[in-house]
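Hi F.,

I've been meaning to write this up properly since the lab meeting, where we talked about keeping a consistent format for the predictions we share between groups. The idea is simple: the sequence comes first, exactly as it goes in, then the structure tokens exactly as they come out, then a line or two of notes. No screenshots and no reformatting. I'm using this chain as the first example so we have something concrete to point to.
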Amino acid sequence: MAHSHASQHAHHHDHTDIDWADMAAHLETQAELYTPLTEHALAWLGGKQSEPGLIVDAGSGPGVVSCMLADAFPGARVVAVDGSEPLLERARARAERLGVADRFGTITGELPDAMADLDYPADLIWASYSLHHLGDQQAALAAFAERLAVGGTLALVEGGLPTRFLPRDFGIGRPGLQARLDAVQEDWFSEMRSGLPGSVAVPEDWRALMSAAGLRPTGSRTFLLDLPAPAPDRARTVAADTFGRFRETCGDALDATDRATLDRLLDPDDKASVHHRPDLFVLAARTVHTAVRPA
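Output, unedited:
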């Protein structure tokens, strides 16, 4: 996730033991914060293909984007697939609240095997930051391709740029904190990948990997989330959770000065914290790669 790997995806120190249900509230709030970016991505995607009949959200989490897919494609049935039943319970409840439950379903199971439970091939598979949690990414892409209808689209969200919440120099600690967090997170991510069952190291050339899976790449585009300072409360919640999870999982890899800075950023009683700072913003970029299954 050229995103904040450790902070957004980790909870336990064991790199492969991630308690997704424990992260439910954070995953929901973060996905809601990214709504403008996702809406632009789905509008772009909608302009590239005919109305799908079946959409699969592969690695859906609590279903925020699953429901956005249902809204963006009102003629489609959406199936959210995830290994965490508690997260899928949230997805079903969200679909009910938003009035799309009549064309919304879920499958509980680990990717990519759970895709075999689909009743018929998908016209669109959306896989956002789920592929990199699978040990053999090439094999997983081949499994996704097998579940696509002829002419169907795989939309793979991987890559982009690290999220920024603060200026390079925000007045406490050493300037450049987030750049140093990026370096630690990249190491964490590499260790997480290598510890996955059946892990296979491959260059992250997503077009080449999709081609090797028998798909025909049709484009890549990067979408921006730009929420200038002063950030809304939801952004402060996400920033606090992001930095807090980083402090918990990777804090030992930082020096004492950076750990102390993180502690101040997380202290709600400190006016220099993310809870109060007037200079907090959100700037992020996420890339969507598309490919179709040829005849």
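Notes:
The chain has one domain: 5-292.
The first strand starts at residue 54 and ends at 58.

If this format works for you, I'll send the rest the same way.

G.
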